[in-house]
Amino acid sequence: MNPLTSSRKALVRRPSPRLAEGLVTHIDRKPVDAALALRQWEEYVATLNAHGWETVEVPAADDCPDGVFIEDTMVVYRNVALIARPGAESRRPETAAVEATAAALGCSLNRVREPGTLDGGDVLKIGDTLYVGRGGRTDGEGVRQLRAVFEPLGARVVAVPVSRVLHLKSAVTALPDGTVIGYPPLVDDPRAFPRFLSVPEESGSHVVLLGGGRLLMAASAPRSAELFADLGYTPVPVDISEFEKMEGCVTCLSVRLRGLYA
């Protein structure tokens, strides 16, 4: 049996001791507690496990300060993994071990080729629609290659502008019903999405769909959690304060594989 058909899997990578040296682009640098970051990452992984996700740990990349943000290394649609070519050159060594892990899980592999750049955090999947943020890390050629790989599989690729945050998914994610959520000051064009819901906190823009209406989200967004609960969802908060200091969020810390349809 193809391993991807057996269960929901999430690829994760433990944080480097050099996390504090990672890149920041739209926020001021703050001190990072590496030991606390490791504990928070372990709790994040445990939360995924507790909600029915099998975590697959990709070999650590201690020389890559941003390596814990594994979502940026690839985009998966159906059984095809497109290995990213990060827009930041210092992050490109992160992809090799991720590619090997995806191959071992049975994914069909493609790669973004030079000169294109694409970060996985710039791609928001809602059903068969892939919104891709064109901005600082993902360029027009990266968008073209994403379209060339996934549109023949049935995907619809929609490019949207990103200028106020690091990645598209730093600004928006989506609820289980497909409604896009975001903190308006950081969203370039909310009209790009058929349904858009404003949230009251920046970190409330980021949710991971755990299944059964459960939303993994940052503990730093309690008012957004109340909003989601009022809509009938179940917030599952985790403390990721040390990763938020590095422009990270709950989506960045894993690559979710939902059977053959990730």
What does it look like?
It is globular, with a radius of gyration of 17 Å. The strands form 5 sheets. A 3-stranded mixed beta sheet has the order 2-1-15, covered by helices on one side. Strands 3-4-5 form a 3-stranded mixed beta sheet, with helices on both faces. It has a 3-stranded mixed beta sheet with strand order 6-7-8, covered by helices on one side. The protein is built from 6 helices and 15 strands. It has helices at residues 34-50, 95-104, 140-150, 168-171, 222-230, 241-244, and strands at residues 8-12, 54-57, 74-77, 80-83, 108-111, 123-126, 129-134, 156-161, 172-174, 180-182, 196-198, 208-211, 214-218, 234-238, 255-258. β3 and β4 form a beta hairpin. The chain is α/β, with parallel strands linked by helices and 262 residues long. 47% of the residues are buried. It has one domain: 5-stranded Propeller (L-arginine/glycine Amidinotransferase, Chain A), CATH 3.75.10.10.
Which features characterize this protein?
single chain, 262 residues, alpha/beta, L-arginine/glycine Amidinotransferase, Chain A, three-stranded mixed β-sheet, 6 helices, 21% helix, globular, disordered N terminus
How would you concisely characterize the structure shown here?
By secondary structure, the protein is α/β, with parallel strands linked by helices.
